[in-house]
Amino acid sequence: MKLSVIIPVYNEKGTVAIILRKVLAIQLENIEKEVLVVDDGSTDGTKEILQGIQKNCSGAALQVFYHLQNRGKGAAVSTALSQVTGDIVIIQDADLEYHPEDYAVLIMPILKYGADAVYGTRFLGIHRAFMFWHYLANKGLTLATNLLFDSMISDMEVGYKAFRTEIIKSIKINARGFDFEPEVTAKILKKKVKLYEVPITYSGRDYSEGKKITWKDGFKAVWTLLKYRFCD
Prior knowledge:
The protein is α/β, with parallel strands linked by helices. The chain has a single domain, classed as Alpha-Beta Complex (Spore Coat Polysaccharide Biosynthesis Protein SpsA, Chain A), CATH 3.90.550. It is 39% helix and 18% strand. It contains eight helices and seven strands. It has a seven-stranded mixed β-sheet with strand order 3-2-1-4-6-5-7, sandwiched between helices. Helix 1 links the parallel strand 1 and strand 2 (32-40). The longest helix is centred in the middle third of the chain and has 18 residues, at 132-149. The chain is globular, with a radius of gyration of 17 Å. The protein starts with a strand and ends with a helix.
C-alpha cells in the first residue's frame, strides 16, 4: 500500500520547511509514502526554500513541481494528481493548521471499512476556538451542501481529505482556487461513493497569521455547489 501526500503551496515561506519536515517524518506501518509539492507561483521566497530542500533530499520520496504563475489551489492539486503513484491520496495544506500526525486517523476508514473518501472534521476534534463568523459561514456552506446533496457531513470546507486514488482521479477538477473544496465535495457526493468523516486536530490561523480564504470565496463556494448539483 502506498500513500501519496499532495501539498499545494503559495507564499508560505514561514511554514513550508516545517510542514515538509513533519510530513516526511511520518511513518505508517506497512505503508510506503511519496510527497508531491506544487509551488503555485510563490513570490515570497517559498520557491527558493523548496529548491534548497529538494536539492538536499535524495530519493523519490519527495517531488517538487513549480507553476510559473499563481493559478490557484485547484490547479496545484491537479498538477500533483497527474503524477501520483499511490493507492491513497491525502491533500495537505502548507500552513500549520493541519497536523500530519492525523494521517493514520484519516486513512483508517479506507483501510478498515472500505471507504472511498474520508473527510476530517475540525469541529469534533481538538481545535483552536476562535473566528466565530468564519465558523458560522462554514456551517452555512455545510448546511447548503447537505440540503443540496442529501448528505450529513459536518465540515465541507475542511482542508484535510483522503481519497482512494482511482476515485479522486475519476473527477474532472475545473476549480482553480479555493472553489476546489466545494467542487470536489459536490462531485464526490453525486458519485454516491462511501464517504466517512473522522475528527482531526485543527490549529487554525487568522488573517494576521496568513490565512488567505475570504468572504468572497464563500459566495463562490455557494455558486459552485449549485452549479455542480444541477450540472456536470
